[in-house]
Design a protein that fits this description.
9 helices; alpha+beta; disordered N terminus
């Protein structure tokens, strides 16, 4: 990219950035070293090569199996991890490489999946385990309306677009919870939207009737305010409690949580081209009582931070005045007071 036209020396710019940020990233590394356990919604990783697929070496995109959850929930404000945690994010590409016994073990737990994964499981005979009788593609479902009062909250009967997504018509069993409905043009037809179900083994399953394999969940059209809040309530139902970390009112962030024996590290990257004037986030309580909070300044100094902290339903709510520049990073360390 270094060229005569731009006269911009990328190597020099990177060197300057690393030099000027040495203290800051040294501080991040110090905090991260004492907090070894990464927490978040667990993305189930496709760790087996998809032997059933024919690979065309001329197209690099044919080599890996599609991973539909990477970066999706992060950009909606939810911390994720590839390490073991309570709530799992399952995809078709992960499940199709698993034996029936392995799938059964996954469905005994807490799982959110897309329509591609649900279709595969129905074909494999696991429809009753996820609360669906069948699942098939549907065309022209232009928008999704949040119709369940328990999950819609302030967005009851408000809608989000689905016009460009590849959608599925779910046929839920009677005991399933239908969270939303998808409608055709001028409400000419409707089909169930997102669903929840608790199976006979106690597993709690959520289904989003869109195609993660085609990139619909990563699309900016999926990252709406209304869907963000409804997904949070769905995930809390699946988890039977609070989530590891959620950033309020800020799609296009990337949050991280790492737990240590005596401290918790929270890092929130602003991936937007707009600044975040303040950061408000909530997390499953790491300690009893109100924590002591430190903030890592851009100069790499640890400073005590005054925040508005409240506890409600096992969530610790933190409201800060920390400003985060575009593509900036904010780091916090929590210890027991």
């Amino acid at each position: 990219f270094r060229s005569v036209e731009t006269r911009f020396d990328i190597d020099a710019a990177v060197d300057a950035m690393l030099r000027d940020s040495f203290g800051y990233f040294s501080g991040v590394a110090t905090w991260a070293a004492e907090c070894g356990k990464e927490r978040g919604l667990q993305v189930l990783w496709d760790d087996r090569f998809p032997m059933h697929q024919k690979v065309n070496g001329n197209r690099m995109i044919d080599l890996p199996a599609p991973r539909c959850w990477e970066g999706v929930m992060d950009l909606l404000g939810f911390a994720t991890t590839f390490h073991p945690d309570e709530v799992k994010l399952a995809s078709q590409s992960y499940l199709e490489e698993r034996s029936d016994e392995e799938i059964r073990n996954v469905l005994h737990g807490k799982v959110l999946m897309d329509g591609d994964a649900a279709t595969l499981l129905i074909k494999r005979g696991f429809g009753q385990e996820i609360g669906l009788k069948s699942c098939e593609p549907v065309a022209a479902a232009n928008y999704e309306e949040m119709t369940n009062r328990d999950f819609a909250g302030r967005f009851l009967n408000r809608d989000e677009t689905t016009v460009e997504a590849y959608q599925y018509h779910l046929y839920p069993v009677e005991q399933a919870i239908v969270v939303s409905e998808m409608f055709g043009p001028a409400r000419s037809f409707s089909v169930p939207g997102m669903t929840l179900f608790e199976n006979a083994s106690g597993g709690r399953i959520g289904v989003i009737p869109q195609s993660g394999s085609r990139g619909d969940l990563y699309s900016v059209l999926f990252r709406g305010w209304k869907r963000q809040e409804v997904l949070k309530k769905m995930l809390e139902w699946i988890n039977k409690g609070p989530l590891p970390l959620f950033v309020e009112d800020a799609p296009n962030v990337c949050p991280f949580r790492r737990d240590g024996e005596k401290a918790v590290l929270i890092a929130i990257a602003n991936l937007s081209v707009d600044p975040l004037p303040h950061l408000n986030f909530q997390m499953a309580r790491p300690f009893a009582g109100e924590p002591r909070i430190e903030y890592l300044t851009p100069e790499g100094k640890y400073v005590p931070l005054k925040v508005q902290a409240t506890v409600q339903e096992n969530y610790l709510y933190l409201r800060t005045s920390v400003h985060v520049d575009p593509l900036g990073l904010a780091c916090f360390r929590l210890t027991q007071a």
